[in-house]
Amino acid sequence: MIENYLDLERGIMEHWNSKVVRKASDMRGFYLANDALEKMIEGGDPVIYEVYAVTHENEGELCYGVTVLHPGKVGDEFFMTKGHYHEKRDRGELYIGLRGRGLLLMQKDEEVQWYEMRRGTVIYVPPYWAHRSINTGTEDFVFLAIYPGDAGHDYGTIAEKGFAKIVVEKEGRVDIIKNPRY
Prior knowledge:
- The protein is mainly β.
- It has a single domain, classed as Jelly Rolls (Sandwich).
- It is built from 2 helices and 15 strands.
- It has helices at 34-42, 156-161, and strands at 6-7, 12-13, 18-23, 47-54, 62-69, 73-74, 77-78, 93-99, 101-108, 111-118, 122-125, 130-135, 141-148, 165-170, 173-178.
- A hairpin with a 4-residue loop joins strand 1 (6-7) and strand 2.
């Protein structure tokens, strides 16, 4: 048994063996407003999100991690994670909202679904579904993800094509629209 501590108020996990920090410059090609993204990068290259995880690569083991997705927008699109499929497509994942609010966008072939997330929300991502998180609020959106150790991450497929839908702010409201580049 391995013990860890997760501060539910702050969304911080004490012990982790993997840290990923995605800055605006790491998100080139993921947003429609390339000019706005480049200005953001030139203005200081802010951190979009961070992941603190306990990882394992063996079949039968579980990985878990806390993602802190900061508030903001690139053009009209809300800050988001890159999104991914699992390398082993037949692996699922579990998301648990800890703080803030956002959406979990999921896609399998041409079918797209999205779910609102906030503290206490639990969402199961079935096998074969790509998934991306989006911060639609004004504070950090923090969630816990749990997935099989041998699942792997395929970011490349999403980088090539994106998702069929994007999440934007339109007239002060969250709107989910067709991705014109898809």
